[in-house]
């Protein structure tokens, strides 16, 4: 049955890491996957805001054979019969690479450093820059959608993109509510562990994972994973 | 005057044709991109003055047309009815053309094209090798049509496909016909056009949009520009037919602002079509209504991407968004929208007129019809070429393009624009076909074709295109923004002698991630230049990194100049030309190059007539 003629309320069935599961037809893959308790890292996503699909950390693998590809789960709708793998090697490798790029840009973000230990990222191969913003756009959407202000936005293109007020001047629209700072994943907390040379915070470093190295279609739903004996608390 | 039936359209066409005397002299001057750069305006001006002063004005027609394609030899002037093809015409030549050709019917020998191989002079366009292997279905009429004249278009059978569709074919039948023709998108992706139309038609909703993509942001490419400038009605006709098939009543042409002539000619064409009742309410009295508006794009490369283009049309920043729900369902203002490239639209009337069977016989199994390429780089005949699919790259480069200048060797050819791959010389017997080009790590893209000779450094090429794409990336998603930044950093390091062997696997990992995880087509294809050069020219990367050498002698940090004592005659030319005073020596004595002061500009190397300056 095509998505169009499905009546409201009828559930969509799809395959999540080999298990048959159901979800609301209007939901995104990320919402459905999180509903089943699986952990998907995200940076530009917030439940209260329009999904933006920019950080690409939430990628999952869908389809099979020649049509296998990665999609951003926060903006991809659930579809009948879709095969979804949340932790295949390709997914993990891609997420790590993306995080590595982000940390190389903003080594001082505690959020990124924590995520690095969760994803077992061990090395940053790029020259560190010490920027503060990862351009996730959460503040922009927060300001516009929740505060109805539109005091800030993106300017510039590509590498020169940055967040600013209209015409780079103090914005009349800004009510100094601080919602942008509240939601920012990069400036919320500073990581104290990184130095100019280390880049990765050694305080949060991991040991080798104990569990299976191939996650394709694996049925591990335990978060925190018991065999890995690691919870977010352990990591801190 | 409004035409309200097919009969009236045919009558008007006949009237125009009958009023034209086939023997009446007519001069067309190419006003395309290339010829404008070489001064066709002056030539046209002189012709106008010359005809006037000899009181020939009323008896000889003069028109400035769209691109004739052979830009290498511009400005091009063709004199009808004989069809004499003049090249590299200057304003000073005009008098002679009028006296000899118009008044006495004889060709001006020295302005004819001379075959570089046989030395033979060629009178007609069709005798010239550059044109012989081409199949100019969409740009061929450019030489004969005045883009500002709807009569010219009607005289060559224009809008007959529209009449055929409105009065003889159901929308579904039109879609079926386009599907059967095998036409695929010429804008980059190569998506089957009929299938796209069908899904837009079937998408629920009353308001649907039809859009023409004329953003053409690839550097050096001017295919779409030439069609819009030279034959705008062919694009409009295609769009009206598409709109009828899809069930749309509103269309847009999104054209980059840097193309003022394309904008002007399209606007004129729209106005003319409206006046004749070929656009607007109740087209040709059929009851079907459709109108087109022009929207000028700001000129960012990424605005050519379908979702970015639609965002830009809505007045928002031109940034791509996820396409997991297709634009054929939710496009412009969330309505079902059908976007096609200029060249795709221009193919539609041809298919309707001559039939899908005829069309699908041209080309290969999966790629039908013709494709326009802009042939640039290290090639003798730069220009715009239209070839049947399935022709080999070798035929394009050597038979049509006339080979590589200076007797140098072909090294590689990049197809598909800035994010296409570089195909090495060993593979140039490859046929032009969507799948085959993709198999070797490149793509059809929109039709850029850059030829590279042996003096091209492939690492430097990869660095160049990576940095172009990095600058053009919108910066929204991390893989593209950060990935291209780091790729650029690594490639710059390699070309400046700071590369490490460990960089190569990092390049591969970054490329993989770009392809897998980027949001839009810019990011997913951006690694093609670096991946293809790394695949086919790995030894050049290794030479840069391990031996600190640039084999092609391009990367400044890795080359050194010295003067060969045996060959130097002491003429002093290099010393005089060196801008940094790095060369010293007495007259008739061997000169010496001080490497400390040398800035490696290469001027001495180019100026020495005794081959005594060596590049290493
Ligand atoms: C970065 C980027 C730039 C593009 N630029 C153009 C362009 O300038 N012109 C064009 O027709 N298509 C361009 N495309 C392709 C369009 O997204 C779209 O696929 C095309 O216009 C569809 O028309 P077609 O099916 O007729 O090819 C571009 C795609 C990307 C990813
Ligand atoms: S300031 Fe913070 S919230 Fe805003 S884009 Fe940058 S990282 Fe995201
Ligand atoms: S791939 Fe590049 S151009 Fe496309 S959305 Fe991402 S950053 Fe923008
Ligand atoms: S959370 Fe999905 S792309 Fe950022």
TrEMBL record, chain A:
GO terms for cellular component: membrane. GO terms for molecular function: iron-sulfur cluster binding; NADH dehydrogenase (ubiquinone) activity; oxidoreductase activity. It comes from the Archaea. InterPro entries: 2Fe-2S_ferredoxin-like_sf (IPR036010), 2Fe-2S_ferredoxin-type (IPR001041), 4Fe4S_Fe-S-bd (IPR017896), 4Fe4S_Fe_S_CS (IPR017900), NADH_UbQ_OxRdtase_75kDa_su_CS (IPR000283). Pfam families: Fer2_4, Fer4_7. Residues 10-90 form the 2Fe-2S ferredoxin-type domain. One of its GO terms (biological process) is ATP synthesis coupled electron transport. Residues 122-153, 165-194 form the 4Fe-4S ferredoxin-type domain. This is Uncharacterized protein. It comes from Candidatus Methanoperedens nitratireducens.
Automatic annotation (TrEMBL), chain B:
Its EC number is 1.6.5.3. It comes from Candidatus Methanoperedens nitratireducens. PANTHER family: NADH-QUINONE OXIDOREDUCTASE SUBUNIT F (PTHR43578:SF3). CDD domains: TRX_Fd_family. Gene3D superfamilies: 3.10.20.600, 3.30.70.20, 6.10.250.1450, Glutaredoxin, NADH-ubiquinone oxidoreductase 51kDa subunit, NADH-ubiquinone oxidoreductase 51kDa subunit, iron-sulphur binding domain. Residues 559-588, 589-616 form the 4Fe-4S ferredoxin-type domain. GO terms for molecular function: 4 iron, 4 sulfur cluster binding; FMN binding; metal ion binding; NADH dehydrogenase (ubiquinone) activity; oxidoreductase activity. The keyword Oxidoreductase applies. Keywords: 4Fe-4S, Iron, Iron-sulfur, Metal-binding, Oxidoreductase, Ubiquinone. InterPro entries: 4Fe4S_Fe-S-bd, 4Fe4S_Fe_S_CS, NADH-UbQ_OxRdtase_51kDa_CS, Nuo51_FMN-bd, Nuo51_FMN-bd_sf, Nuop51_4Fe4S-bd, Nuop51_4Fe4S-bd_sf, Thioredoxin-like_sf. It comes from the Archaea. Belongs to the complex I 51 kDa subunit family. This is NADH:ubiquinone oxidoreductase, NADH-binding (51 kD) subunit.
